[in-house]
Design a protein that fits this description.
single chain; four-stranded antiparallel β-sheet; alpha/beta
């Protein structure tokens, strides 16, 4: 299914990121199982786009495919294109991709405890990112301290020699954000960055991301299953279901007047006081492969 792209007559330049009709499958003994079925998305410079959907809907596959981080095999890129600043990353060489990964496109993943190396200090891990992508930086320690302070780490100099296990989950996630931003990327992909954190820390992390995105002018692709957190963060949202983008538009409009039954079901699951519902409601008579459904949602 091809998503309905937003119209912006004032935009005279191409989007920073344009995914067009992306089709990905995974090989197995039974052949190739489709994972993405014609995903199309656009993200402009300095903008924030949220991709929302339940586990298995294709959110993370979409995010990882942008810089071809999915292992091949079993991953098979069956069609489409991923243009970043005019370059089709699906056709890029490994050397070209290395110049993009980290330096131009950085990732924050949902489990900092598994993303951070337990045998290296915070200083060592952030310093590696800076030396690799910004060799012009002379005082690496001062640069590390500056980014730790920017993400809200209290007394950053005292934390340089800490190991990940000495930090709380919220502090580990802040370190991951500092590491990603220390390369000063043009696009930050945050894949469920607050899933393992309590709601108070979630709010702090998301507000910090919003402030840094505004201050640095970078684009952000936010991956989440939670509609409740995106209203103040992302201007546009794409809803994914079974490997397809089934709804795409301005966040306020989608939250106010969702068109797709899956979007309606996700919004209905936002926790409210006094609401005892715990499960996603059934989507009656919806077949994502039906031509009728495609025509109605086009």
């Amino acid at each position: 299914m091809r998503c309905v792209k937003r119209q912006n007559p004032a935009a005279d330049t191409l989007p920073m990121l344009k995914i067009d009709n992306l089709q990905i499958g995974f090989t197995s003994q039974n052949g190739v199982t489709p994972a993405l079925r014609g995903v199309s998305l656009e993200l402009g410079k300095g903008e924030t786009l949220a991709i929302v959907g339940e586990s298995g809907s294709g959110k993370s596959v979409t995010a990882l495919s942008i810089t071809r981080l999915l292992p091949a095999p079993p991953t098979v890129y069956q069609g489409g294109s991923i243009h970043f600043e005019g370059q089709d990353l699906l056709k890029a060489t490994e050397d070209e991709l290395r110049k993009v990964r980290g330096r131009k496109i950085a990732y924050i993943f949902q489990e900092p405890s598994t993303s951070l190396n337990p045998v290296y200090t915070i200083r060592t891990q952030i310093a590696e990112m800076i030396r690799l992508h910004r060799p012009d930086v002379n005082d690496v320690d001062q640069e590390i301290i500056r980014w730790l302070d920017a993400v809200g780490i209290v007394d950053p100099p005292s934390r340089l020699n800490d190991y990940p296990h000495q930090l709380s989950g919220g502090m580990q996630q802040r370190v991951m954000i500092a590491m990603a931003l220390s390369a000063r990327p043009e696009l930050l992909i945050a894949d469920e960055p607050t899933t393992a954190l309590d709601v108070t820390i979630q709010k702090q992390i998301l507000e910090k991301l919003r402030d840094l995105q505004r201050d640095l002018g970078m684009a952000v692709l936010l991956i989440t299953h939670n509609f409740a957190i995106i209203s103040g963060l992302a201007r546009h949202v794409a809803v994914m279901y079974r490997g397809e983008v089934v709804e795409y538009g301005e966040t306020a409009q989608v939250l106010r007047s969702p068109r797709h039954p899956y979007t309606k079901a996700l919004i209905a699951c936002i926790p409210r006081l006094g609401d005892r519902r715990r499960r996603l409601s059934t989507i009656e008579d919806f077949n994502p492969n039906s031509e009728v459904e495609r025509d109605e949602l086009a």
